[in-house]
Design a protein that fits this description.
mainly beta; 6-stranded antiparallel β-sheet; 4-stranded antiparallel β-sheet; 2 helices; 13 strands
Length: 166
């Protein structure tokens, strides 16, 4: 019998990046490059919240040398306004020089371990994003959580399937 064991590892609290990690300012610049360029095209300057980046371990290598950059509260000033809406704001995962970006309202990191015949396997690190319901083939306010995990080269997504028979 296979049993899932979900170990909650909330790494959303500030963590220290390890030596050799991409510095926070570079991770922020890399993650926000697209919106920063767009805002400049509009004649503005992208302004971020005071603490837009959190050092995390997304690759399960035991070091918090990856980054989540959250654009919640981002403002394209002086004339455009706040970025984001009912679907949330841009959330960027920065792993080395690779950036993955999504529109989401919240993020959380969990470790998932499978137990088989009493033996607990190694944990699988998951990045979970609370997203607009349309990302789960539903309506805006519907609960929608999309999960990503590192495959050694990139973050891959769990794709929700439709009801049986589809």
């Amino acid at each position: 019998m296979i049993r899932l064991t979900l170990t909650l590892s909330l790494l959303a609290s500030p963590a220290l990046a390890t030596e050799g990690a991409l510095p926070m300012d570079q991770a922020i610049s890399l993650g926000t490059a697209e919106n920063r360029a767009w805002c400049e095209e509009q004649g503005g300057t992208l302004q971020l919240s005071d603490n837009p980046a959190t050092a995390v371990d997304l690759t399960s290598d035991g070091t918090a040398d990856d980054w989540i950059v959250n654009e919640t509260g981002a403002f394209c000033g002086p004339d455009y306004g706040f970025l984001g809406g009912s679907g949330g704001a841009m959330i960027h995962a920065v792993i080395g020089n690779k950036v993955s970006s999504w529109l989401g309202g919240a993020w959380m990191i969990h470790d998932l371990s499978f137990t088989y015949e009493g033996e607990v396997g190694p944990p699988i690190r998951m990045l979970m994003l609370g997203m607009h319901g349309s990302a789960c083939d539903s309506f805006g306010a519907a609960p929608c959580v999309v999960t990503f995990t590192w495959d050694g080269e990139r973050l891959i997504a769990y794709a929700p399937s439709g009801p049986e028979g589809e």
